[in-house]
Amino acid sequence: MKIYTTLSALKAVNLFSADKDIRYYLMGVRVTATATATRLTATDGHALGIHQSEQQNEGVDFVEMIIPNDVIKLIKSTSKNVDTVVIDTEDGITGTIGSITGAAVSFKAIDGKFPDVQRVMPQTISGEPAQFQPYLLEKFSKASKLLGSKKGLINVAYNGPSTALIKIDATQDFVGLVMPLRPIYDDTEAKMVPLWAREQLSAPVTKAA
Questions:
Q1: 8/24 Cα distance (integer angstroms)
Q2: Is 23:5 a contact under the CB 8 Å cutoff?
Q3: How far apart, in whole angstroms, are the C-alpha atoms of residue 104 and residue 96?
Q4: Which is nearest to 74 in space by CA: 30, 104, 41, 44?
Q5: What's the rounded Cα separation, in Å, for the pair 96 and 99?
Q6: Which strands make up the sheet holding 94-99, listed edge to edge?
Q7: Torsion angle in degrees (nearest 10) through CA of 8, 14, 16, 19
Q8: d(Cα 62, Cα 36) in Å, to the nearest integer?
Q9: Is the Cβ–Cβ distance between 115 and 27 less than 8 Å?
Q10: Which one-letter DSSP state was computed for residue 96?
Q11: What is the pLDDT of residue 146?
Q12: Given a cut of 80, is residue 31 above it in pLDDT?
């Protein structure tokens, strides 16, 4: 089987995989392919990236595998103008992966069950504002640049306390999800500046003898 995708999409989606996690099956990119499409998915449990492209995959009916992070980091291209990556596997477990203008890297798929991310896809978007960890939004900006945006612009569809939808201007082939920040304190306390910060810090008053 030969499964095709792009290096830019693979690197972009890989931004959302877990780095160090007891859930070892999140430490990679899930590749799902049919004869006519390749889908890449990664998540660390806080943000998710998913990319799908139309491809003429060879000898593929349906295959699913998780490519480890350390393998993806080794994939290089010797040409900035060629973006195609090919995954060559006979059993969907082992094989090689690489840019068509670079060296192929051997891999063994992660033996684990990737979560059913379709279950967390929001059915509706409320538009209610929410706050997010800046580093998570930065990942989407980096993904946007990898996928062709010069400025790394992203569009956030707010969804209150529920999962928000992220889209980028560069392509319609990518969709992201991000969890909002949940307040540590109750609403009243969270909106108040602490008393110590509202008072002037000054030297103690010395009483006259």
A1: 24
A2: no
A3: 6
A4: 104
A5: 10
A6: 2-6, 84-89, 94-99, 105-108
A7: -150
A8: 10
A9: no
A10: E
A11: 95
A12: yes
Q: Does this model's pTM top 0.90?
A: no
**Which structural domains are found in the chain, ordered by start?**
2-111 (3.10.150.10), 121-190 (no CATH)
Distance of alpha carbon 66 from alpha carbon 153, whole angstroms: 28
Comparing CA positions, the residue from 65, 45, 68 lying closest to residue 113 is 65
The Cα 10–Cα 3 span in angstroms is 13
Q: What residue type is assigned to position 19 of the chain? A: D
Q: What is the pLDDT of residues 139-174, one digit of tens each?
A: 999 999 999 988 888 999 999 999 999 999 888 999
Structure tokens at 91: 């059993």
Structure tokens at 52: 């799908």
Token couple for 193: 């500046």
Question: Do 44 and 17 meet the contact criterion of CB atoms below 8 Å apart?
Answer: yes
**CA–CA gap between residue 43 and residue 174 (Å, rounded):** 14
